[in-house]
Write a structure and sequence with these properties.
The protein is of the alpha+beta class and 146 residues long. It has a single domain (6-141), classed as Histidine kinase-like ATPase, C-terminal domain (Heat Shock Protein 90, 2-Layer Sandwich). 37% of the residues lie in helices and 26% in strands. The protein is built from 5 helices and 5 strands, in the order βααββααββα. It has a 5-stranded antiparallel β-sheet, covered by helices on one side. α1 (17-30) packs antiparallel against α2 and α2 runs antiparallel to α4 (110-117). The two termini are 14 Å apart. The mean pLDDT is 95. Bound molecules: adenosine-5'-diphosphate and magnesium ion. Magnesium ion is lined by residues 49, 52-53, 110.
């Protein structure tokens, strides 16, 4: 993972309608690599889970800004999704299956899906300052053929 081949930065308000926009825009960016349709679906799920977490948990319905940075390396897609919201009190706990701070409404599986569907996930969060997720994925085909 060395030279950046392409890059897109998106910044938008934390409205539910923008979750679908980000999901599709990220998938279109990702399609520059040889991902299978299944892999693109996994990327879409990871993207929408991350952006909806920013909307729901980061800003709790208040209006804030979400930043998405997509970077393309030779055969690696890197997606950064950042909010300047509440932050996560205990990141390790948040990553546990079925852990949610909203047990009546949610299943606590969003971060689990992201970890499962992407090759790598790094979560950085500071209470009161916000959260940043960096996730990477390579097409399985690229790894086999190169
Ligand atoms: N961007 C975020 N800002 C603040 N808290 C978050 C963020 N993303 C996740 N969390 C915390 O981590 C928990 C687990 O997230 P997740 O696995 O997506 O499950 P769910 O969204 O169903 O609660 C959330 O309940 C929330 O407390
Ligand atoms: Mg979630």
């Amino acid at each position: 993972m060395d030279t950046v081949r392409n890059m897109v930065v998106m910044r938008f308000p934390s409205r539910a309608i923008n979750i679908g926009f980000a999901r599709t825009a990220i998938a279109i960016f990702a399609s520059q690599l040889d991902f299978t349709l299944d892999e693109l679906d996994e990327i879409k799920i990871a993207a929408s889970e991350a952006v909806s977490n920013a909307v729901i948990h980061g800003y709790k319905g208040r209006e804030g800004e979400i930043t998405v940075i997509c970077r393309l390396f030779d055969d690696v897609l890197e997606i950064t999704i950042r909010d300047e919201g509440e932050g996560i009190a205990d990141v390790e706990k948040a990553l546990e299956p079925a852990f949610t701070t909203e047990p009546e409404e949610r299943m606590g599986l969003g971060l689990v899906f992201i970890k499962e569907y992407m090759d790598r996930l790094v979560v950085e969060s500071t209470a009161g300052k916000g959260t940043s997720l960096v996730m990477t994925k390579s097409p399985v085909q690229a790894r086999v053929s190169s």
